């Protein structure tokens, strides 16, 4: 039975139980699994400015309950948006005393802010996020090729990745126009799915690959949904183009076929697609064409989900699921015969690498922060509102039958979540990129 020896917040050694030095304080987890704390590089914390949607306290508690010890926050749903240094400072102040886990903040690339990127890089953001289509937030303007070129010029030499929401407007606008001309039923999920065609992702990813190749700059595709883009990504990577890819737990779990009309808690963009597409994503994850899995936890006040009308075109997009990804993935993996050791790669090591924190986070390795998860891979349970620690208990995962449960979460050597719920106090710190 292996043991991790912890001292001064770091992992001092990983070795045999017999080699633990005499006098060390022992914490025996028996036959449960010891894993590295997970890193979720795609979360919308919404604070400051939209704390009624989510916030540092609630998001980081949800993270701790799910074995996630590091969050990287997306720059758009907070006010001010993280598109200049003053906004980053406001976020740092807002997080004071409220973070149960460690965190970092992506900066934003929007139309016209190329001049803010170097100052943000110098202020310690690990990379930048942009949208190639309307983000839903007016203060976070989408970018076209010209804006992307201006941004990549500024980022040259920094090595900081450019993360992109990879859908372009053209196919979405065209599909939506055609749908609306035929007076569609906007309560029907099929209508929403038809309004966000695969082509929007494929076209966006083609553009991003082209720019990554030309600028030799790391580009990261967030939340890949369409498996049709996989051959293009595979070919680019074979050529050495620096492109990394994530998908999200929801694309690996839900399918379009099972979504009821009006069930807008399933709305996200790009959309949840069909069962065959989901299996193609699993195949790509298993064989390494997709690097990592995040949650893209993106909640809003329940009223904004338009459950009264059930209209997909009016509901806010975003799936709430922070804290559930580990058992969700494990349940789906065990159904597909995939070994549990892959979880550490997909949900800890790869996102830590993306966010430039692999020397501290994402591994059970000497010198890393002692962020640990004790996981019971055989526990069976059904998701109920009391298991959700984020602010609003509206989630498409409610009622899901899951396998595997987080028993304990440790942040830098101290228990932050255990059998009795929260433990200790919020001592999460920002990871500022040097
Ligand atoms: Zn997102």
Protein traits:
434 residues, alpha/beta, 30% helix, binds zinc ion
Structure write-up:
This protein has 434 residues and is α/β, with parallel strands linked by helices. 30% of the residues lie in helices and 19% in strands. It is built from twelve helices and 16 strands. A six-stranded parallel sheet has the order 7-8-9-10-11-12. Strands 3-13-14-15-16 form a five-stranded antiparallel sheet, with helices on one face. A three-stranded parallel sheet has the order 4-5-6. Helix 3 runs parallel beside helix 4. The relative contact order is 0.18. The mean pLDDT is 96. The chain binds zinc ion. The site of zinc ion (ZN) has 5 residues, from loops.
Approximate helicity band = 25-40%
Give a short account of the largest sheet. 6 strands, parallel
Order of helices and strands: EEEEHEHEEHEHEHHHEHEHHEHHEEEE
**Neighbour order of strands in the largest sheet:** 7-8-9-10-11-12
Radius of gyration from the CA trace? 21 Å
Q: Pairing-aware structural class of the strands and helices?
A: alpha/beta
* Backbone shape: globular
Please provide the count of β strands.
16
Name the beta content range.
15-25%
Bound molecules: zinc ion
* Chain-averaged pLDDT: 96
- Uncertain segments are none
**Helix segment tally:** 12
| Amino- and carboxy-terminal Cα gap | 37 Å
